[in-house]
Amino acid sequence: MKKGLVALLFFVMWFALFPQTGQAAAGGTSIYLDGNKLELSKNGQVQNINGSVMIPIRVVVEELGYVVDWEKKTRTVTIQQQDTVMKLVVDQSTALVNGTKIQMPVAPKLVSDTVIVPLRFVGEQMGLSVSWDNKLKTVYMVTPPTENGGGEASPGDGGDTGSTPGDTDSGTQPGQTDNLANIGGISFSDNRLLIAVDQTVTPNIFTMANPQRVVIDLPNTKFADTFSTGQNLDSTQNGFIDITDYPEVSKVRYSLYSNNPSTVRIVLDMNVVKMGELINDNDGLIILDLNKEVSNPGSNGKKLVVIDAGHGGTDPGAISVTGKKEKDFNLSVTLKVQELLKKETNIDFVLTRSSDTYPSLSDRVKIANDLNADLFISIHANAGSATASGVETYYTRSESLALAKVMHKYLVSSSGLTDRGVRSKSLHVTRETKMPAVLLECGYLSNKSDNAKLYTEDFQDRVAAGIVKGIKEYLGLQ
Ligand SMILES: [Zn+2]
């Protein structure tokens, strides 16, 4: 689809460093094009209409050196850029680009004598990287670079598993690409990591130690087709940016970490222990701001819970009597817990994995220990004899017993399965963590009756809710 458009979609090239932005004038808005502030008239301010950022078209395209023409009678703006002719009509949400109809999220509007159009449309059609800082009421636009720094390949950060991105999976199916968000660009400036995306993305951020890293997984994403024209990305879908101007970060690496689900991973090699604040306004730009630490998980008075979906990636865990994999059950319940925890204003959480990946056991422990988490909950399902059935809660260190009892109470009631008790066992993740830690076995995949329930939405919803209730009770947040 949109074949003709693809050539125009130069998308986002984030090589230019953004300028330090001054305070926006009270009530006023700003547009920076390649670091230069454009003069906006009183009527030509940036506006937010139904969630779409709208910019005055003339000032921008004239600055770019394009020819702009306004026909008052038909209320049509014609923009000519080399071989491309764009026609926009006020109050019509369909634009014509070289005769091809392009749908815009919001129709152009006439404000006094100024036509404003959706920022995203301008970016896509003119090959600009665009972003909107809602706090500063500032639009940033960057024209693509004409050459690329290039450089050697960098290894994808596969945790410590040694796996190459994509080596286990079947690859993206044709047609599936439409559901994936495109990563248009990745850049680092003002001590901030900037990620341009063309759809809503829910990132998963965590830290790893030895060496210190901040990891951002972007589920259901891929690199835009045009990504490599603007920046360093090799044929194995790996790239990096050397950071020299900011002492806290030495390098930003990125790779297509998983094909199924397609996940882009960005790793910041850190010189300090820090996580920064992740800002995601779902407006096409995800920012990790290392100037801010206020929202570090757990550092804001909130409790921090680490949820660990057992196994993953190359490690399927137990295989059920019907051939299903434990890792999928664990992840599914974990993601349901995540959704519920998002609604809890007093709890921050970090997942050790949010997709089909395998952080090593020591990685999982390090995430929790480095963040000084308050709780660690590992989610599993068990396997044993065909007759074994029910739920168990494991702990190792005595300071975890109280948590184990509370979590087990809710695991039994929410699962409706046989109570096989709270058990003490020396398991890596419950032993090496430094906070109360438990491992939940949510039923037996080797048992026909348990197994038939474990993969149902209803069972998983109930168990996830039970886990969150247990966390809240233990933390005294009920
Ligand atoms: Zn397991």
Automatic annotation (TrEMBL):
Bias (Low complexity): 162-172
Highest taxon, organism lineage: Bacteria
Database matches in InterPro entries: AMIN_dom, Cu_amine_oxidase-like_N, MurNAc-LAA_cat, N-acetylmuramoyl_amidase_3
Disordered: annotated segments: 143-181
Signal sequence residues: 1-24
UniProt keyword terms in alphabetical order: Hydrolase, Signal
Segments of skewed composition (Gly residues): 148-161
One Pfam family named in its UniProt record: Amidase_3
Keyword Acyltransferase included in the entry's annotation: no
Keyword Signal: yes
Limits of the MurNAc-LAA domain: 365-472
Name by which UniProt lists this protein: N-acetylmuramoyl-L-alanine amidase family protein
Lineage, top ranks: Bacteria, Bacillati, Bacillota, Bacilli, Bacillales
